Amino acid sequence: MSAWKLWKQMFDAWEGATSEYLEKVLRSPAVLEPGAAWLTAMMKLKASSDQATAGLWGALGLPNRRDQERTLHLLQQLQSRMIDLEERLEDAERRAARHPSAPERPGGRGRAA
């Protein structure tokens, strides 16, 4: 038997035993309950940190993350409307090019440009 096959068999045996043991340990209440308590505490700390940061930004007169997201949303809506208007304008220009006998604009200057 080659050294590689022997090493591979030993590794597979070690990996199988280790994964079985770790799965039992990580599913036990002795590990899960403190882990859940720690995660809950960290999430509360993050929430209070986010709130304090937003308050600081607001006190400095700067937009916080929520304000920036709201502004970005409005900008995206405006961009979408502008693209729609550009498409409608292009369609109107194509229709006007196909029918050159369009009515003249007031003032006698010919068709609208």
Structural class by secondary-structure content: mainly alpha
Low-confidence stretches: none
The number of helical runs is 3
Q: What gap, in angstroms, lies between the N and C termini?
A: 86 Å
Q: What's the domain count?
A: 2
Share in β-strands = under 5%
Structure description:
80% of the residues lie in helices and 0% in strands. It is built from three helices and no strands. With 113 residues, it is an all-alpha fold. It has two domains: 62 residues; 36 residues.
Please render the helix and strand layout as text.
Blueprint: H1 3-27, H2 29-59, H3 65-98
Provide tags for this entry:
single chain, 113 residues, mainly alpha, 2 domains, elongated
Summarize this entry quickly.
This protein is 80% helix and 0% strand.
